[in-house]
Design brief:
Elements lengths: L2 E7 L11 H15 L7 E5 L5 H13 L7 E7 L2 E6 L2 E6 L12 E2 H8 L7 E7 L9 E2 L7 E6 L6 H12 L4 E2 L10 E5 L8 E5 L2 E4 H12 L5 H14 L7 E4 L1 H4 L7
Parallel strand pairs: 1-2, 1-3, 3-7, 5-10, 7-11
Antiparallel strand pairs: 4-5, 5-6, 8-9, 9-12, 11-14, 12-13
Helix pairs in contact: 1-5, 5-6
Length: 267
């Protein structure tokens, strides 16, 4: 059995910077080493200007997809902007690499992830965290929350030009087919934890004196408190924390029901 992880965090978008994504990656890397039995050389990290579409895809293949074998534990974490794109009349989720410009050549869509992950072996376990927004809303500063823990938020949804936002809204109003990231894990021994529901935004927040994604912060808090709990319970605990701190986002758990019912990264 081998451990394989790729962690991607992007703050330095030229036109829409974030502040907590690299901290998410640092926190997750340390958690994998200190609590999950991963070695440093089993974890690949891409941050900021190095997290281009080409580098992310190459790293997925080099670190996870091509070397994966039955019995491996595999993990992909992405903290970044996300958005929706209209492709051939359908709405598709995508994550936004640092060089993203609202073209399919610079996006990584659910179509891409389905293709990449299709070859992962059935006898391995795959967990995926997407701490991004996929609602297609314009990125915006959100009002400070009432609780003392949270002081600042920015939505992790890439600012969409008006003409594209108008086209996306028109597609939704006519009932266009929508394809989500979760379809990429449906056939795998895998589970996806996404930062929010499809009509919400994931917060890039200032929490306890430090910037983090609210989803990643809540996930690690829940895992450290109850590492043996199944993912279904972990995500429930995450949502409880979101409610207690007045976040308008509901982390989602999708994928193989058997894996969703097991603890984090358990074969």
């Amino acid at each position: 059995m081998a451990n394989r992880a790729l962690l991607v965090g992007i703050n330095k978008y030229p036109s829409a910077p974030l502040q907590g994504c690299v901290n998410d990656v640092e926190d997750m890397a340390n958690f994998l080493v200190n609590h999950c039995g991963f070695k440093h050389d089993e974890i690949a990290v891409l941050t900021d200007e190095r997290a281009t579409r080409e580098n992310i895809i190459d790293s997925l293949y080099d670190c996870i997809i091509e070397p994966s074998k039955i019995g491996d534990r595999m993990f992909f974490h992405n903290s970044s902007h996300g958005t929706e794109m209209l492709i051939n009349g359908e709405l598709h989720d995508c994550i936004c690499p640092v060089d993203f410009d609202f073209t399919t050549d610079t996006a990584i869509t659910d179509i891409d992830f389905r293709k990449y992950f299709y070859s992962l072996p059935q006898g391995a376990v795959f967990n995926w965290v997407a701490d991004s927004c996929f609602s297609g809303d314009l990125a915006r500063k959100l009002p400070p929350r009432a609780g003392a823990v949270v002081k600042y938020q920015l939505a992790r949804s890439f600012p969409m030009p008006f003409d594209l936002a108008w086209s996306v809204q028109a597609a939704k109003l006519r009932g266009a087919t929508t394809s989500r990231l979760s379809v990429a894990v449906e056939h795998l021994n895998g589970a996806l934890i996404s930062g929010c529901d499809t009509d919400q935004t994931s917060a890039d927040a200032f929490i306890e004196g430090r910037y983090n994604g609210a989803c990643t912060y809540a996930l690690l808090k829940a895992l450290k408190a109850s590492p043996a709990e199944p993912l279904t319970k972990i995500v429930t605990t995450m949502n409880d924390w979101m409610d207690a701190n007045e976040y308008d986002q509901d982390p989602q758990l999708k994928g193989n029901p058997e894996i969703r019912g097991k603890p984090w990264l358990t074969i």
